[in-house]
Amino acid sequence: MADKHEFTSWIHDVVFEDINPNDSIVPTEFKKKKTANPFLKYKGKIVRKIDVVVLDPFGYSVNDFYGKTPDYIEKLGNKYHVTTKEQIIRNLLLFKPNEIVGVLELSESERLLRLSPYTFDARIYIQKSLTKKGDSIDILVVTQDRWTATATSSFDLSAPDIILTDKNILGFGHQYDQGLAWNNTDKIITTSGRYSIFNIKKTFISTAIFYSTAKDN
């Protein structure tokens, strides 16, 4: 039922998580079909330039980013969202300008963008360059941000707690979690925090620092 509307679909994705995404049943007719890689015909081409478009989380689509217009509620949500910086998106690309590009680099770049915690969806479009040789291409990378600020709780009245999370601080792709909990036994507040970086300067290395406080710690 949530899939019928974009807003309710977003709420569903925030609240629920598919714990077995690989166990979905694939119809027999789809198993028999082989889909050709759309990037195959651009193998060996030289990348002339790369343009990046980052869309807000509500009311847009990477498949139709020029034709869709957010409604009032979606615009309100987008107003309080900080868009991911263009350089953060470029740091996840496996190809560069003035280099020969392969099929794997294009396909994997799309996959890496979709796997990032701050990106909801991504598409890479190939635009033929108007050069005489015809050996180069222009690339347009379109991503749609996630809504990354959330608040969660276990809703346990005997030990109330809350965890505040932002997975894309100021659009730089960094994540911060701050937890607060009330200990009814000791009558104290315990805290915990975690700061993590998904991709350090295009090295694909992640890191995190965390802390916690308790009665004896």
Q: Please bin the fraction of helical residues.
A: 10-25%
Number of strands: 8
Helix-strand pattern, N to C? Answer: HHEHHHEEEEEEE
Basic shape: elongated
For the record, give the distance between the C-alpha atoms at the N and C termini, rounded to a whole number.
Answer: 46 Å
Please work out how many helical segments DSSP would assign: 5
Structural class: alpha+beta
Average of the residue pLDDT scores: 86
Radius of gyration: 21 Å
Uncertain segments: none
How is the topology of this model organized?
Layout: H1 6-15, H2 28-32, E1 46-55, H3 72-79, H4 86-90, H5 103-115, E2 119-128, E3 136-145, E4 149-152, E5 161-166, E6 174-183, E7 188-197, E8 207-213
Parallel strand pairs: 1-3
Antiparallel strand pairs: 2-3, 4-5, 5-6, 6-7, 7-8
Characterization of this structure:
Helix content is 19%, strand content 31%. The protein starts with 5 loop residues before the first helix and ends with a strand. The strands form 2 sheets. Strands 4-5-6-7-8 form a 5-stranded antiparallel sheet, with no helix packed on it. Strands 1-3-2 form a 3-stranded mixed sheet. Strand 5 and strand 6 form a beta hairpin. It contains 5 helices and 8 strands. The model has no long low-confidence stretch (mean pLDDT 86). The protein has helices at residues 6-15, 28-32, 72-79, 86-90, 103-115; strands at 46-55, 119-128, 136-145, 149-152, 161-166, 174-183, 188-197, 207-213. The chain is elongated, with a radius of gyration of 21 Å.
